Design the sequence.
């Protein structure tokens, strides 16, 4: 098999960061199976693999539509290469995409049924069984649609989702709760739970959307969507409470209360957040519903069965829930070995679940079980293939199994941040919408021509705390200097921003030095933890002057120079760190964030794990972890920030229009991480481009 030509073409794409190394092996396998594929079609298949790498599950076999998608990607790759300061190397004819695409599309369409049968199966309908898939590629021809080419594993996942989602989610649109039903459940929940506002304890009043979700959730499986602060986990808590209390709790073997409840999310960090959110919600349950009168003197005996069951719930990753086995390269729970029908599943952060994992999850859940899927479809899609949540929210069958929560408890109707998020979301909903026109308030510190130096630790200079002086709800703006800057000038700009941003974070080192990991003071731990969550820098990019790697390097130097110069090893007290690889034996997961503290000369990482001990914090020597499993976290990528909340967010957008990471989902996700203020560092042109550029993944799911 002569692969010299295609390897050269592949190498050019790889040099542009346009294709993954694994694709080379898959391409070689196709050529071995079908040696008579022309050179042009081999190149076309390279382009297909490149688009599949972007998260699409299918590519259109229409030269015009394919070209449009490919050139958008190619132009982005050229821009990335240029901004990285690298010249584009010889591409061996790679620029002749139009010819490659037209020839490849024509050859596949005309020869798939006769010449390419070893590698392509042709299906005339989307209604096929899993057993019908027998080749690496699937070509679908559905009446009234473009023909599409799928990878077999992605097509298999698509039809599994269609099959099992169709079974699990019914149409509840004809049985919507009446106003009387809604008022009744609102009154019931107000009698069960309270919340605190301005030091007052008030009855918990669900809004009409939330009440409707609780009522529907008692009788049907639901997908519950909504932005930050709309109460998705609050709704699920009272759905669970209502379901469990429907049975006769006086019967020791009551089946309703004996059902298994599973909390899961695509990442350990997201699973922990859901568990913590539900635990916080349970704190509002009135005491008379927590404890059973006359059952004994200890709290253990007094806790009601429902309250205890919900209190003891633990979050899990979806992989752990399904029990992934490396030896079998599969899940222990699957279509043949499903969970019990007496099960309830709560799945959070569904926008982050890729198509293969979604398929594995749904097929392991029996028809009689209950499932509630939570997510925000306007956030960034999964890292791997698919945009499943967005697809299943638009069923062709018009089935109604979705509750959309739109009223935010975090943002009022006149909230500046909330309304900006709505306007960004509107651009995603309507392709003809234009970016919101805003006269952003210049950031009061960044807009100043005078930038104060970082305080010297022993000078007696008061550590600034700019974030404490900012408004409660505001969007600030800082426009990068016009024109092309040198690397030195960009570095100076970053230093100016960091000097103004740092503020009370200069206190982190001294506060960390007061914590003894072997005998921690809970109040001191809570104080530094609260400060660490006050603000964060978010960037769309990892590399470059305004990428998280350089921002973290500069931020660490500022804080180390202020209060931790004597710590010359890798870590310093007060440094914020993020776990980047799961450490399952310690119950730490990718995305968990901690703070460095010291015992003598030994650095530890301190993390908040409320259920672990009475202080709510755990400490691990950093020597226990691989160095590549931890990185600084004063700045994190917007991808990594999903699900997190900070009082103050400073967000860097890519500087060039056409950048692949300058898009609507990036902008929306970053803005909605902020609770009090967000500062957008961009130009008017890049802000507009981000608002109006929506990531569109072609997943092809039909319900």
Sequence:
């Amino acid at each position: 098999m002569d692969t010299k030509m295609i390897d050269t073409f592949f190498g050019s794409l790889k040099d542009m960061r346009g294709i993954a190394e694994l694709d080379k092996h898959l391409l070689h396998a196709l050529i071995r199976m079908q040696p008579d594929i022309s050179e042009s079609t081999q190149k076309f298949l390279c382009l297909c693999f490149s688009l599949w790498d972007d998260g699409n599950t299918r590519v259109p076999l229409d030269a015009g539509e394919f070209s449009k998608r490919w050139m958008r990607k190619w132009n982005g790759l050229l821009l990335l290469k240029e901004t990285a300061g690298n010249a584009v190397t010889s591409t061996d004819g790679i620029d002749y995409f139009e010819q490659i695409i037209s020839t490849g599309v024509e050859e596949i369409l005309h020869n798939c049924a006769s010449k390419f049968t070893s590698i392509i199966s042709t299906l005339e309908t989307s209604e096929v069984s899993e057993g019908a898939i027998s080749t690496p590629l699937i070509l679908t021809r559905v009446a009234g649609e473009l023909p599409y080419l799928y990878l077999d594993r992605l097509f298999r996942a698509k039809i599994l989702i269609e099959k099992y989602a169709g079974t699990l989610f019914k149409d509840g649109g004809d049985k919507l709760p009446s106003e009387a039903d809604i008022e009744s459940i609102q009154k019931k929940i107000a009698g069960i739970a309270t919340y605190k506002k301005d030091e007052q304890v008030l009855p918990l009043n669900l809004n009409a959307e939330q009440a409707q979700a609780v009522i529907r959730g008692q009788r049907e499986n639901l997908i519950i969507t909504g932005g930050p602060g709309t109460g998705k986990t609050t709704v699920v808590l009272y759905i669970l409470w209502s379901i469990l209390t429907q049975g006769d709790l006086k019967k020791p073997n009551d089946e309703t209360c004996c059902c298994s409840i599973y909390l899961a999310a695509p990442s350990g960090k997201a699973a922990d957040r859901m568990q913590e959110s539900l635990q916080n919600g349970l704190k509002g349950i009135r005491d008379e519903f927590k404890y059973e009168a006359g059952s004994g003197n200890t709290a253990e005996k007094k806790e009601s069965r429902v309250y205890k069951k919900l209190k003891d719930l633990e979050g899990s990753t979806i992989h752990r829930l399904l029990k992934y086995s490396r030896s079998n390269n599969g899940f222990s729970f699957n279509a043949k070995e499903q969970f019990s029908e007496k099960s309830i599943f709560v799945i959070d952060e569904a926008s982050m679940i890729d198509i293969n994992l979604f398929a594995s999850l749904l097929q392991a859940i029996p028809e009689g079980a209950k499932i509630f899927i939570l997510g925000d479809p306007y956030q960034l899609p999964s890292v791997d293939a698919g945009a499943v949540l967005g697809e299943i929210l638009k069923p062709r069958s018009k089935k109604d199994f979705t509750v959309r929560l739109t009223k935010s408890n975090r943002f009022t109707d006149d909230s500046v941040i909330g309304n900006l998020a709505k306007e960004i979301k509107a651009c995603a909903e309507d392709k003809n919408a234009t970016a919101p026109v805003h006269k952003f308030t210049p950031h009061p510190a960044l807009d100043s021509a005078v930038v104060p130096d970082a305080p010297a630790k022993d000078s007696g200079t008061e550590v600034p705390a700019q974030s404490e002086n900012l408004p409660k709800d505001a969007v600030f703006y800082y426009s990068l200097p016009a024109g092309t800057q040198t690397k030195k000038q960009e570095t100076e700009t970053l230093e100016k921003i960091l000097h103004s941003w740092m503020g009370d974070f200069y206190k982190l080192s001294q506060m960390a030095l007061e914590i003894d990991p072997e005998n921690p003071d809970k109040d001191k731990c809570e104080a530094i933890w609260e400060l660490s969550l006050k603000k964060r820098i978010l960037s769309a990019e990892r590399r470059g002057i305004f990428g998280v790697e350089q921002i973290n390097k500069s931020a660490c130097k500022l804080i180390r120079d202020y209060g931790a110069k004597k710590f010359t090893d890798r870590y310093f007290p007060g440094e914020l760190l993020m776990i980047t690889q799961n450490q399952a034996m310690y119950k730490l997961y990718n995305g968990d964030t901690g703070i460095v503290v010291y015992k003598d000369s030994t650095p530890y990482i301190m993390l908040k794990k409320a259920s672990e001990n009475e202080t709510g914090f755990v400490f691990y020597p950093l020597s226990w972890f691989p160095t590549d499993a931890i990185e600084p976290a004063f700045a994190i990528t917007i991808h990594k920030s999903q699900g997190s909340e900070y009082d103050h967010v400073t967000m860097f957008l890519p500087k060039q229009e056409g950048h692949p990471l300058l898009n609507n989902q990036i902008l929306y996700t970053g803005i909605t991480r902020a609770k009090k203020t967000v500062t957008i560092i961009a130009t008017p042109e890049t802000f507009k481009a981000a608002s109006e550029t929506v990531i569109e993944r072609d997943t092809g799911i039909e319900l």
Notes: The CA atoms of residues 335 and 363 lie 5 Å apart. DSSP finds 25 helices and 25 strands in the chain. The two ends are 43 Å apart (CA to CA).
